[in-house]
What we know:
The complex is a heterodimer. Chain A has 2 domains: 13-65, no CATH class; 79-200, no CATH class. Helix content of chain A is 42%, strand content 22%. Chain A is built from 6 helices and 6 strands; from the N terminus they run ββββαβααβααα. The longest helix of chain A has 18 residues, at 166-183. Chain A starts with 12 loop residues before the first strand and ends with a helix. In chain A, 32% of the residues are buried. The model of chain A has no long low-confidence stretch (mean pLDDT 91). Chain B is of the alpha+beta class. Chain B has one domain (3-80): YaeB-like fold (2-Layer Sandwich), CATH 3.30.2310. Chain B is built from 2 helices and 5 strands. Chain B has helices spanning 3-16, 40-48; strands at 20-22, 55-59, 67-71, 73-75, 78-80. The two termini of chain B are 19 Å apart. The relative contact order of chain B is 0.18. The chains are: A alpha+beta, B alpha+beta. Strand 4 of chain A pairs antiparallel with strand 1 of chain B.
Amino acid sequence: xxxxxxxxxxxxxxxxxxxxxxxxxxxxxxxxxxxxxxxxxxxxxxxxxxxxxxxxxxxxxxxxxxxxxxxxxxxxxxxxxxxxxxxxxxxxxxxxxxxxxxxxxxxxxxxxxxxxxxxxxxxxxxxxxxxxxxxxxxxxxxxxxxxxxxxxxxxxxxxxxxxxxxxxxxxxxxxxxxxxxxxxxxxxxxxxxxxxxxxxx
Amino acid sequence: xxxxxxxxxxxxxxxxxxxxxxxxxxxxxxxxxxxxxxxxxxxxxxxxxxxxxxxxxxxxxxxxxxxxxxxxxxxxxxxxx
Lengths: 201, 81
């Protein structure tokens, strides 16, 4: 990169095409929160060009790219949640029930996060699990989840299930896994997870 | 503007950082230059090896005075557009 890149400042103006107005408009550079197109996260307080007519964000200048890259990297690293110890035991028992090994617990929880967030499994009354006795306990153990969809699925599920806290959401998902796999032995998720366990070992 | 001239101008802009990304419904996760997953030099290399028949241009649907150039090519075993 040469040194003659023009650095933009808040308040700078230029012309750009606004996709909302569908014409060439004047834009003013401002600091805004801008989401990713797949709703996986938001780049906060980033310099962008904002349409002077409709106030929509229309332009991302090159100088804002490092901040975008940083947010993306942050989302794609592992998510750590603290849960009561018995919740890891529930996941371990579920894994045994499905024919998986100790590492399979991560596949179970990631499958549930994904399937619940996109309607493949019902989310009705998810928040009620938090009222149960099994939801209690000191959060002494750490659960670390990796994967490019994890952050997106969690954010989506938080909205759908009306559970704003990530640790509460994970607790309710674990208790749903308990209900489905250990208590009611619900065939729908079990069939899929058994096949996944068979090829994962 | 022909492909070679357009390519030369784009590569010059990439080198000088004179690049702006259009935002529609958020930052396009597939725009690897905007997300920083592809850097300017890598994109310039992809463009340099593209052929004339992999390029097309047409007026922008919002502003006919602006020409839109599309290049669809293959580089290192991947399809790029």
